[in-house]
Amino acid sequence: MSMKRVKILQAEMRQQIAARRWQLAARRCRQAIDLTQKALGNKSADLANLYNDLAEIEAGRQDFSRALHEARKAAAVTELMGPGWAGQEASHIRIRTLTMIGDLCLMLGQSGLEQPELEQAVHVAQATFGIDSDESFMAMNNLGIAYKNCGRFRDAIELFEQPLGALNRRGTANTLLLADLFRNLGGTYHACGDYARAEPYARASWQCARDAFGDMHVRTHAESVAYAIVLDAIGSYGEAEQRYRSAIEAFELAYGQRHLTVARAHHSLAAALALRERWQDAYQAYRRALTVKRHLLGGYSPEVAQVRIGLAGVAIELGDRSRARRWLNAAHRVLRPRLVPTHPVLRTLDRYLFHARPLRRRREVA
Questions:
Q1: Quick check: helix, strand or coil at residue 171?
Q2: How confident is the model at residue 175, as a pLDDT?
Q3: Which of 58, 228, 300, 361 has the most C-beta neighbours closer than 10 Å?
Q4: Cα–Cα–Cα angle for 22, 24, 27, rounded to 5 degrees
Q5: CB count, 10 Å around CB of 16?
Q6: pLDDT of residue 113
Q7: How many CB atoms are located within 10 Å of the residue 92 CB?
Q8: For residue 300, how far is the Cα from the chain centroid?
């Protein structure tokens, strides 16, 4: 009887998730977890799946630390199941758990240059489903994002290109996975400074989402933001700014103002405004991004550190070197151990640190 009640609670939970009623969804999920533990104990696939559900709900609520806590509970259950727990269901649960832990650790600044959970997810996917499976391709895409973020660009490109080539040879492709791979390849080439190579990938990603969802869907706007970042780099400032502002309006309507997706769009807009030397507008957009990201991700997140670098660059232009130094020093502490030494962000950080010094000290260094 208790497991029948669990199924009912899960159905209600999914309804609440679809309606973005996260608090009610979390309540149903916790009730299902309690009943599952009473019926099956702490060693069951159902329990691991429910903890994963709760982790995703907490991420939907924008409580990423709590989401990581719940994902680690799922990992503890899979460890209790032992090596004899095998097969496709077991692998799906392990991959889901490992991916959430890896992604959340990256966001919250709890990982460095190595990505053990995401690397293990790739291993599990390839061993169970084969190297040309969608499961393997999605795991490779997630690992590639982590490598790209820390500056392992060649490794990232290889992880994106291999599944993209296989999907193209297959003929029929997972449209959303294809959009992810296009976006991430474009983003990696952009991070490398190869803007000409980045542009067709970023445009293809946006077109994939547009074909699948239409112009007004939030997923299409998310891909539009990624494309706008590349448009900025090649000098199409007006089109890029229009894309950012349209996306922010759509995101705020869908999610509210204090959401990570909104903050990321403000961050991208701020960088675009700084490129056009609209310092006051850029400063305000960076401040909005920093306020929300710091609240959601904490002070050790690389995302927060990168907003601080952008803010510092604007502060230097506005003559506020003292505040710029505080932001840069905070970013330095977070990013140095988490990025490869040649990462372009670190070069920008070092350049800003030099220009943020008092004029007398800059003359001494020169």
A1: coil
A2: 83
A3: 228
A4: 110
A5: 18
A6: 77
A7: 18
A8: 15
pTM above 0.70, yes or no: yes
CA dihedral 61, 64, 70, 73 (to 10 degrees): 170
Range 182-265 has CATH code 3.40.50.300? no
Could you tell me if 93 and 45 are in contact, meaning their C-beta atoms sit under 8 angstroms apart? Answer: yes
Q: Give the separation between CA 363 and CA 366, rounded to whole angstroms.
A: 5
What lies within 8 Å, CB to CB, of 26 at 6+ separation is 54, 57, 58, 61
Q: What is the pLDDT of residue 114?
A: 81
DSSP assignment letter at 133: S
pLDDT, position 172: 66
What does the domain layout of the chain look like in residue ranges?
A: 1-80+89-105, 115-173, 182-265, 277-366
Query: What is the reported pLDDT for 365?
Result: 44
33 within 8 A of 50, measured Cβ to Cβ: yes
Q: Tell me which residues of the chain have a pLDDT lower than 50.
A: 362-366
Domain 277-366 in the same topology as domain 1-80+89-105: yes
Superfamily (CATH H level) for 277-366: Tetratricopeptide repeat domain (1.25.40.10)
User: In the CATH scheme, what is the homologous superfamily, with its name and number, of domain 1-80+89-105?
Assistant: Tetratricopeptide repeat domain (1.25.40.10)
227 within 8 A of 202, measured Cβ to Cβ:
yes
Q: Which three-class secondary structure state does DSSP give residue 41?
A: coil
DSSP-assigned letters across all residues of 222-281: HHHHHHHHHHHHTT-HHHHHHHHHHHHHHHHHHH-SSSHHHHHHHHHHHHHHHHTT-HHH
Residue 3: the pLDDT is 84
Q: Which two structure tokens, joined as six digits, stand for 50?
A: 């429910």
